[in-house]
Amino acid sequence: MVVLMSLVGLITSLNQQFQVPMKAAYLIQTGQMANFWATLLNFAFFVAYLVMGGTGARYIQKHGYKKTLSTGLGVLLIGFALYMVSAWVFETFDISRFQSVIDQARVEGDAFEYTGKTVLPTAYWVFLVAAFASGSALTFIQAAINPYLVACEVPGTSGVQRQNIAGTGNSLMTTLVPLFVAYVIFQQKEGVDVEISSLYLPMTVLLIFVAILLVTLRFLELPEIESVSAGDEELPRHIWSFRHVRWGFIALFCLVGMEVCLGANIVLYATEDLSFTYGVAAQMAFLYWCGMLAGRLLGSFLSNVSARTQLAVGASGAALLLLVALLIHNPWLFCGMGFFHSVMWSAIFALSVDGLGPYTAKGSGLVIMGCFGGAVLPVLQGALAGYLGSWTWTWLIVLVCEAVILYYALVTSKISNQDKQAL
Fold first, then answer.
1. How far apart are CA 163 and CA 327, in angstroms?
2. Of 31, 118, 361, 416, most Cβ neighbours within 10 A?
3. d(CA 196, CA 92)
4. How many percent of the chain have pLDDT more than 90?
């Protein structure tokens, strides 16, 4: 489960960090709408959680956890292949339409500004399909991992603690990926110097790794957890009727949305509004995920601190840090928010599926659909940044999300009396 959760972090962060290089490679003829088209990359990835979340939950009920994980890994292989197909399509078919503009941009440098008609390469749409396929794969994988970590008892640990332990592997990957994309895959190249062919080697390596993982999984003995699935049984209540599950979906929507805003859009903010180089901006994303890694390492030892307390402290601390960063105009303080966000996923998920019994599989699928926030909020932020001409005030979106999560921690995460009777 820790290895799989690490893989989830790697793929999620990889897709986020592709925004800036893909903007340079594919969106040179989109003018002021470049940010919008760039953030659609994350939209395509996270919208898969909404579209496929219910399917993932039903798949678990019908086929079990092990087959669900195998299916997710299989779809992920397709996603990796499509990323490489996108690069091939651009170099084979699209480049002739864009070469003259690329040459002009190289000559004019920073003074270049495209004002013509928006033109999108075919390869861009293939890349969006690849992002959707990858997001669909992770929907299946996470729908199985998270309830398994909560329900599979390990002596001396709590459900939220086990999720924090697995989350440490996840955070390690999200911490390293921004630097890996900037310095290894694209070798610190920026703007029109970005070579999309740089994707071939890392994607091939990832494809081989996941294929090995898929084969290995088939030989592992992974016990089913009967108490958290109703099988083919018809349950008397709809999963939406449970307040703590419904609000768990909303809280996760806010969390994933603001994580992507900070982990991905902070690079666009730093390079455009503050004139940082891509390499330095990538370091901001690196530090944000570093904070999350440190927080999850700490959280893995907090067996006696309730999920509700961890969530309330995390939301309060992150909101305070964001306010200070905006007041003194210091974007580096955003990086520290990762520490406070670190325990939120585990806490929200543990609280959302608490006491659900045979409803757990459905509850897991519903809550995972909240990852759709990663599709909506970053695109909304990018659109607002384009409209306002600056990213500064768009960070208030994140502040509102912190308030919603705090409300969930203090009020709506508690199982209502009516729901207790039903369970």
1. 34
2. 361
3. 12
4. 26
Supply φ then ψ for residue 305, to 5 degrees.
Answer: -105, 125
> By the 8 A CB rule, do 135 and 270 touch?
no
Whole-angstrom CA distances from 227 to 67, 86, 282 are 18, 43, 44
The span from the CA of 219 to the CA of 45, in Å, is 30
pLDDT in tens, 131-181: 999 999 998 998 888 777 766 777 777 766 777 778 788 878 877 887 788
Per-residue pLDDT tens for 115-135?
Answer: 788 889 999 999 999 999 999
Amino acid at 121: P
Q: Can you tell me the distance from the alpha carbon of 333 to that of 266, in angstroms, rounded to the nearest whole number?
A: 11
Residue with the two structure tokens 């990213």: 391
Count other C-beta atoms under 10 Å from residue 111's C-beta.
Answer: 7
pTM over 0.85: no
Between the alpha carbon of residue 278 and those of residues 15, 179, 241, 275, the distances in Å are 16, 10, 46, 9
From the list 235, 233, 222, the residue with the least C-alpha distance to 62 is 233
Cα–Cα dist 400/404, whole Å: 6
Q: Quickly list DSSP for 33-94.
A: GHHHHHHHHHHHHHHHHHHHHHHHHHHHHHH-HHHHHHHHHHHHHHHHHHHHHHHHHIIIII
Q: At what angle do helices 373-388 and 34-63 cross, to 10 degrees?
A: 170
Nearest Cα neighbor of 55 from 42, 43, 71, 41 is: 71
Count other C-beta atoms under 10 Å from residue 14's C-beta.
22
Q: The tokens of 95 are what?
A: 């480049």
Q: Cβ distance 134 to 79 under 8 Å?
A: yes
Cβ-based burial of 360 (10 A; exposed 0-12, middle 13-18, buried ≥19): buried
User: Radius of gyration over alpha carbons of the chain, in Å?
Assistant: 21
Please state the separation of Cα 149 from the chain's center in Å.
Answer: 19
Give the closest residue to 419 by CA, choosing from 369, 361, 351. 351
- Two tokens at 302? 């907090």
Q: How far apart are CA 194 and CA 182, in angstroms?
A: 10
Return the number of other C-beta atoms located less than 10 Å from residue 214's C-beta.
17
